[in-house]
Specification:
about 240 residues; alpha+beta; 8-stranded mixed β-sheet; 16 strands; Glyoxalase-like domain-containing protein; Glyas_Bleomycin-R_OHBP_Dase; Glyoxalase_6
Length: about 240
């Protein structure tokens, strides 16, 4: 028994508009979702995107963002142009004039990067090359153990993991860390896999996550029995039975 990463949830004032933007950028198809709108991958990404309604305002740079890869300089230009046509915009996070990657924001200000061709770190990844995260070495180790994904980078307190089945890397940049002002706009959904008879699988998995360094938020379980937790850096995630 274990858990599987099944979705990246993104809070949105207008979930439909944001889903249409990302469907256009990624080429993914819209799917049914009980709480909002979802996109299913058409590649080896391995998890869906869920856009959930929220009134919360974005107050600082997100803890996590997409790094999109480019097979050529022309592909990088095309990805940027497509994102701008769909409602994205250029965004300054201090990258400087010599940066080879292009920093953009989606229609609700969520940052993402279009990486230049020839990036060796993401060479084996697909179009969604990475979920680049602000976080500690400890949290990289935590997620490696939780998902049973091997560490593919562990240097100078920077870590990265990747599914054995491929897909994007998840990276953590190490210190310094930005202050966390509230609930993250981007969060993981995990689902229990394996023996789930009579709910015992969920309880056993919750205990395992706590033993690895997770914490329960104290919130009541959701209508389908889902439980919200936080990782060692305080980032929220949800575990579904």
């Amino acid at each position: 028994m274990a858990v599987q990463l099944v979705a990246l949830c993104i809070d949105a004032h207008d979930p439909l508009r944001l889903a249409r933007f990302w469907a256009g950028v990624l080429g993914w198809e819209q799917a049914d979702d009980p709480e909002g709108i979802a996109l299913n991958p058409n590649d080896d990404t391995g998890f869906r995107l869920r856009f959930l309604p929220s009134e919360a305002e974005k107050v600082q740079q997100n803890q996590m963002h997409f790094d999109l890869t480019s097979a050529s300089p022309e592909m990088q230009r095309q990805t940027v142009a497509r994102a701008l046509e769909l409602g994205g915009r250029h965004h300054d996070v201090g990258q400087g004039p010599d940066a080879t990657h292009v920093v953009l924001a989606d229609p609700e200000g969520n940052e993402f990067c279009v990486i230049a061709a020839g990036n060796k770190f993401l060479a084996e990844c697909g179009f969604v090359g990475a979920l680049a995260s602000d976080g500690s070495q400890e949290v990289g180790y935590f997620w490696s153990r939780v998902l049973d994904w091997p560490l593919v980078w562990d240097q100078d307190q920077e870590t990265a993991i990747r599914s054995p089945h491929g897909g994007p890397k998840i990276t953590w940049g190490g210190p310094p860390f930005a202050a966390k002002p509230g609930r993250n706009r981007l969060r993981f959904d995990l689902a229990v896999v394996g023996d789930r008879q009579a709910g015992s699988g969920l309880n056993t998995e919750l205990d395992r996550l706590v033993s690895l360094g997770a914490a329960r938020t104290g919130a009541a379980p959701g209508p389908l029995g889902e439980v919200e937790m936080t990782d060692p850096d305080g980032n929220e995630f949800t575990v579904w039975p």
